[in-house]
TrEMBL record, chain A:
This is Aromatic ring-hydroxylating dioxygenase subunit alpha. Residues 46-155 form the Rieske domain. GO terms for molecular function: dioxygenase activity. It comes from Pseudomonas typographi. InterPro entries: Rieske_2Fe-2S, Rieske_2Fe-2S_sf, Ring_hydroxy_dOase_asu_C_dom, Rng_hydr_dOase-A.
Automatic annotation (TrEMBL), chain B:
The keyword Oxidoreductase applies. InterPro entries: NTF2-like_dom_sf, Rng_hydr_dOase-bsu. This is Aromatic-ring-hydroxylating dioxygenase. Keywords: Aromatic hydrocarbons catabolism, Dioxygenase, Oxidoreductase. It holds the Pfam family Ring_hydroxyl_B. Pathway: Aromatic compound metabolism. Belongs to the bacterial ring-hydroxylating dioxygenase beta subunit family. The keyword Transferase does not apply.
Length: 424, 158
């Protein structure tokens, strides 16, 4: 590569680090850029925090992070959802250490300050010593702006940015399509695989919109599936496409037949689903619903990447959490059909276990590839990450730009958003 | 305490561990009953594993596929293969009706691959069935003490 960038400018001008067809390697390994990303991206846009089904009842909560900041996502007595900083307003201790649960209030374990589900400060033990120098109304758990679409809950530190639905834009219709895998029962997230890999978060962000790696990295997975599934996953030369949806979001359609899971319900049931269909019929499920379940049970044929931290990935939610410039935690949240026959959900659970997680047949190989990117990217000082695949065939589309299924269009979309936000 | 039974199940489980550390997967696959399940849960409180998300919930077919993946050379996370040494101890017979025996024990696995040494501790619960020569595994439950933490790829059989 002949494009040299003076090292002194790296931290001061992120614009030079992202070009139309490549990004500079420092995006993976410069700690100063990582700190800037936390401030300018994770603390400045809509970040996914939960699916509504994870906090189903009054008092249900989960804890998670926005960037590096611990937060609680909780449903109050009126069923409203709050995203609260997990930090007591007295001396800073976390008020909740459980990953999920149900509670009436949050009580700090250090001095016993108690907060209601909406974050308001309710009780201070032994208040006499404060006299009139404290006003409880001024010290609630800090509450973030929270909005949701299609059951996906997002939060932001910013009160002046666009509403969530505007930020999502054309991605909304793909979210609606994704939720059709509930087969009319609704989407439920009953668990997740969590793992960490030694690499930058953007390596994972890229991967969700990378069809190119699939036949190679996932060869051992492909060797473990039946003929029909193998055919289905042979999509790199197929009619799929990648579309830039604006604001860093993109969709990669691998299997166009599986875009709309409520279409073509009268088609013959594929052989690999026959046993499940028979089991559902035996349970007394009527034929139209059997077809609906079977059509939805394997998930959709696309990955929707929502900048910066979540993807609706075929049959599950893929969530990334930056730990440091060279470490990332990934959650693969399993999706089941809420209230559907157990046989259908068992099928989905086993499917998830087959590919995902630290003992899946897919995830560990992805993780290995990403680790090698981080390691290899230490070599050289003026080298670039190439993102020009599919450029010649890229065309304007109704929602943005579109190119072939293994084009790096989605990655270019994400990095253009990165550039815009880092310059703000 | 039935020391003879304790010794028999210990010998069987040690043999299984030795097979896994030394890559004798064909032999390992024959240790199971036809309907035997190999389960690695995530949620320490889970009991209905079939209807819960696990790390692994393998029937005979999935065990075969898992072995094939480990030795097939097609997976970058298992080539080079990790080296493992497992120590299994603290055996206790929880149940015995003359046919079925349930045993709980402790397992510490050391894994080395590329530049990293890792350590996984787990409670193992075996549901064994008496067979012609020794036992067959009806269920092996591997409860990692950090199962609900974020793990890294595990490219071998626990």
């Amino acid at each position: 590569m002949s494009n040299l960038i003076p090292a002194i400018n790296l931290a001061v001008d992120p614009a030079e680090l992202v070009q139309s067809d490549r990004v500079h390697t420092s995006l993976y390994n410069d700690p100063a850029l990582f700190d800037a990303e936390l401030a300018k991206i994770f603390h400045s846009t809509w970040v996914w925090v939960a699916h509504a089904s994870e906090i189903p009842d009054n008092g249900s909560y989960k804890t998670t992070y926005i960037g590096k900041q611990p937060v609680i996502v909780v449903r109050d007595r009126k069923k409203d959802v709050h995203v609260l900083l997990n930090r007591c307003r007295h001396r800073g201790a976390t008020v909740c250490e459980h990953k999920k649960g149900k509670t009436n209030s949050f009580v700090c374990p250090y001095h016993g300050w108690g907060y209601a589900l909406d974050g308001s400060l309710r009780g201070i033990p032994h208040p006499e010593s404060y006299g009139d120098c404290i006003d409880k109304a001024e010290l609630p758990l800090v509450s973030l702006r929270t909005e949701s679409y299609a059951g996906m809950i997002f939060a932001t530190f910013k009160h002046d940015i666009e509403p969530l639905v505007d930020f999502l834009g054309p991605a909304k219709k793909w979210m609606d399509l994704f939720m059709k895998q509930g087969a009319g029962y609704g989407i439920k997230v009953p668990g997740e695989h969590r793992f960490r890999f030694p690499g930058n978060w953007k390596i994972q962000l890229e991967n969700t919109t990378d069809a190119y790696h699939f036949p190679l990295v996932h060869k051992s997975f492909l060797s473990s599936v039946d003929e029909q599934t193998l055919e289905l996953f042979d999509f790199v030369k197929g009619p799929g496409y990648v579309e830039d949806l604006g604001n860093g979001h993109s969709v990669m359609v691998m299997i166009p037949d599986l875009i709309d899971l409520e279409a073509d319900l009268d088609r013959p049931i594929p052989e690999r689903f026959e046993a499940l269909a028979a089991e559902l019929r035996e349970e007394g499920i009527d034929e139209p619903q059997v077809r609906r379940i079977v059509r939805a049970v394997g998930g959709t044929g696309f990955n929707l990447n929502l900048f910066p931290n979540v993807a609706c990935s075929m049959a599950f939610f893929r969530v990334l959490q930056p730990i440091s410039v060279h470490e990332t935690e990934i959650h693969h949240s399993v999706i089941t059909m809420d209230g559907a026959p157990a046989a259908a959900n068992r099928y989905r659970l086993r499917l998830h276990e087959h590919f995902q997680g630290p003992m899946g047949f897919g995830t560990p190989d992805d993780s290995e590839a990403w680790e090698r990117v981080q390691k290899g990217a230490k070599a050289g000082e003026d080298l670039w990450i190439m993102l020009n695949r599919g450029l010649p065939g890229e065309k304007p589309s109704e929602d943005g730009l579109v190119s072939d299924v293994s084009a790096e269009t989605g990655m270019r979309a994400a990095y253009q958003q990165w550039k815009k936000m880092m310059q703000a | 305490m039935n020391l003879q039974l304790l010794q028999e199940v210990t010998a069987f489980i040690w043999q299984e561990g030795d097979m896994l550390d030394h890559g004798e997967y064909d032999g390992w696959l024959t240790l199971w009953t036809e309907k035997g399940t190999y389960i690695i849960p995530i949620d320490p409180k889970a009991t209905d594993f079939e209807n819960t998300l696990n790390y692994a919930y393998d029937d005979h077919h999935m065990r075969q596929l898992r072995v094939q993946r480990l030795i097939g050379g097609e997976s970058i996370s298992t080539s080079p293969q990790p080296r493992t040494v497992r120590t299994i101890s603290r055996f206790r017979v929880l149940f015995d009706d003359g046919v079925n025996v349930t045993v709980r024990c402790a397992q510490n696995v050391r894994e080395f691959r590329k530049e990293t040494l890792k350590h996984y501790s787990a409670d193992l619960v075996y549901e064994l069935v008496r067979a012609e020569r020794g036992f067959r595994i009806q269920r092996k439950l591997v409860s990692l003490i950090n199962s609900d933490d974020a793990l890294a790829g595990i490219g071998y059989i626990l």
